[in-house]
Amino acid sequence: MKYITQVLDETYEIEIKKDGLVIVNGEERHVDFKSMGQHAIYSLIIDNQSFEAVVEQRDGQYHVLIFGDLYEIDVTDERSQRLARLSGVSTDMTGEAQIKSPMPGLIVAVPVNVGDEVTKGQTVVILESMKMENELKAPRDGVVERVDVGAGDSVEQNKVLVVIQ
């Protein structure tokens, strides 16, 4: 799977391969990545150098603390990017925005309710498919008009999950 990652003013294309091989902007890196058992602390060994990172996800971004420096990171996987391009979702969209299931799966959580104000990039549904959790995000700022699913629901591809006005 490829990811497009924005850190500060830099963009990185990251591809995760098997056996700890990660390709960053075309350069191979060997990575060992483990959760330390505590919710947000991770141990990384990258090309034989050890790092400890505290990772928290909020407001549609990852906040990563490494060596006392805090980074705000935007991550988009290639599937989400492709779906956004194909669906024609634009950031200046007005009117009703329907968040649809990009694939069949199981709803893990719906962290919004009818009437909630949401911001662009905020997670509105967490969908599990093919043993991966996918965070579906608001394409723009708005108010949740409808929530058509709940945790534990099975959904088919293209089912409307949440509507934002």
What does it look like?
6% of the residues lie in helices and 57% in strands. A hairpin with a 5-residue loop joins strand 4 (27-35) and strand 5. With 165 residues, it is mostly beta strands. It has one helix spanning 78-87; strands at 2-7, 10-16, 21-24, 27-35, 41-46, 49-58, 61-66, 69-77, 97-100, 105-109, 117-118, 123-129, 132-137, 142-147, 154-155, 160-164.
Brief overview, please?
By secondary structure, this protein is mainly beta.
Draw up the topology in text.
Layout: E1 2-7, E2 10-16, E3 21-24, E4 27-35, E5 41-46, E6 49-58, E7 61-66, E8 69-77, H1 78-87, E9 97-100, E10 105-109, E11 117-118, E12 123-129, E13 132-137, E14 142-147, E15 154-155, E16 160-164
Antiparallel strand pairs: 1-2, 1-8, 2-3, 3-4, 4-5, 5-6, 6-7, 7-8, 9-16, 10-12, 10-15, 11-14, 12-13, 14-16
